[in-house]
Amino acid sequence: xxxxxxxxxxxxxxxxxxxxxxxxxxxxxxxxxxxxxxxxxxxxxxxxxxxxxxxxxxxxxxxxxxxxxxxxxxxxxxxxxxxxxxxxxxxxxxxxxxxxxxxxxxxxxxxxxxxxxxxxxxxxxxxxxxxxxxxxxxxxxxxxxxxxxxxxxxxxxxxxxxxxxxxxxxxxxxxxxxxxxxxxxxxxxxxxxxxxxxxxxxxxxxxxxxxxxxxxxxxxxxxxxxxxxxxxxxxxxxxxxxxxxxxxxxxxxxxxxxxxxxxxxxxxxxxxxxxxxxxxxxxxxxxxxxxxxxxxxxxxxxxxxxxxxxxxxxxxxxxxxxxxxxxxxxxxxxxxxxxxxxxxxxxxxxxxxxxxxxxxxxxxxxxxxxxxxxxxxxxxxxxxxxxxxxxxxxxxxxxxxxxxxxxxxxxxxxxxxxxxxxxxxxxxxxxxxxxxxxxxxxxxxxxxxxxxxxxxxxxxxxxxxxxxxxxxxxxxxxxxxxxxxxxxxxxxxxxxxxxxxx
Length: 502
Description:
Blueprint: H1 6-23, H2 26-46, H3 49-82, H4 85-119, H5 126-155, E1 160-163, E2 168-171, H6 174-179, H7 181-210, H8 216-251, H9 253-259, E3 266-267, E4 271-278, E5 283-290, H10 293-299, E6 305-306, H11 309-320, H12 329-356, E7 365-369, E8 372-376, H13 387-399, H14 403-417, E9 422-424, E10 428-429, H15 440-471, H16 478-481
Antiparallel strand pairs: 1-2, 3-6, 4-5, 7-8, 9-10
């Protein structure tokens, strides 16, 4: 390992580990807030108990998830000052504004309405209580928007000037930062992927309960909602991904050339399904390709020209000076495919599930094997398919909750790794952003501590989720079914202390 680069390399590893771990919770927070709000809206409108039980069940999982997301997210901002002080000094005038808005929304707006929702079940009228969870949902989306706007500025800096005397970037147009096409397309893609994640999470857990003939009414409702969410969000994720891809082709041609292992620019550029080659020599030894498809994805024209890795590297050397401006090609290439592959798998499972459930619902049958009784996962009546196909489908459905999480992780790895060697594209290189006074040992120590801490938090998170998932939707009480008609509840409950509703 080059000792001169060791602190930078370790700082990147640390930020990568903590960011990917944190982003496991972000999409679930965004989607579960909205899905829970939708279920509670259905209960307020219809007063059907299945919607209220589903609301309380998914709301509990949402609260566990958002708590872990907040804890892990705080560490991200500390790292800017710890390991990336030169970056913070250079972009602080610009980065500080969206981060400040995100903090205000997350720690004041969202937390206020979360508190009202948690403690307001027996204190607030139904519609006011419902409005609280919708405000939480709006807050999660706004919070994500400001963070993504900041990240989009790193991908495509706009609305700024360089103060040569102070050696830093200064904000000149905050509106441009918030509304540039990079930010809008990235927000669109991230939000649709978040709902794909939440829908798959709902499908997997509902299938788990239905396979055991438990909580049938609430889980049937959850399953259908999850399947519809997966399909709609899956389609929108593909559309938004296409939009974002076209933006990247224009703004970061190196990233998209690396994503396709396209070494030399060409007309009718092919889309690579599989490629293996020599990075040092800059060519592929083996390539399975679809002719012209990359040109179409880049420019809506099958015969258009797309620049390759070698072309863009040469152009950036002429523009920015000597150096290697190529990212890690294998990580970029395979990260792009893992992202698409797991995302498409979730969508396909959603399509299959909605088709399988088109007929009359049927509980799992039980087959006796020796002295043991085991569940046979035939959840819906569809004799044309036969039991074996539906058995395998629902086993896969239980595991599909993890697929979008994997896709999201690889999507962010691709987004950030594909931008290297830039931390702010075309403006500041990563090697110039790391804290100059931090030693290799200090970064290594903090990375080990954070990784161990996050591993412990992962155990806590999984145990909590497993515990409450297995418990299923709670039984309803009289106060659940008859909330107060005015703020504060009935007069006889005026002195009753506030209690956590779960």
